[in-house]
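FAQ: What does a ligand-bound record look like?

Like this one, built around fe (ii) ion:
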Amino acid sequence: MILMLLFKPIKLKNMLKKKIEDICNRQIEREGFSSNLYIAMASWAENNGYSGVAGWLYSQAEEEKLHMMKFIKYINERGGKAVIPAFKKPDSEFKTVEDMFKEVLKHEEFVTASINEIVALTLEEKDFNTHNFLQWFVMEQVEEEASVRTILDKVRLVGKNNMYQFDRDIQSLRTPSASGQPTT
Ligand SMILES: [Fe+2]
Ligand SMILES: [Fe+2]
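The answer part, i.e. the structure of the complex:
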């Protein structure tokens, strides 16, 4: 206890500015919400007999959790304080698989805009470390959007006549990302 009272974290010279810390904390909420949203979608797919779609979404949810973790660790490493927020409840009902993936794309576009906003702020604030940290996310968003667009094309082409085939093939639509980890 006494030790705890005496412990004062060393102030880093190159500490995160408050503005950058806040916007990175906002991104923790967005990545964490993405993870929960995809779990909710996976659960809906599972309950409706689409085990392939569910598998794809469960894997994607894991990746979104890793994105959240990257922000948490980065903020703390730079002398800031990562805050784990409450997440709003995601939708749990979807009309069709196609409608659901349209929502995934809309959500990914929102996340891309959010990442770009942080990139813009790092330039304004001349925070080149955070700017560099974000480059991985910039590329990740390009891949994620492209991959969801491919799925939407496939669901329109194949899924219209044969949802069984679409559901079976969707797992093979995951491509390795730049980091070597599987991604959307
Ligand atoms: Fe993400
Ligand atoms: Fe994503």
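Follow-up question: can I read anything off the structure? Yes, for example: The beta strands are 175-176, 182-183.
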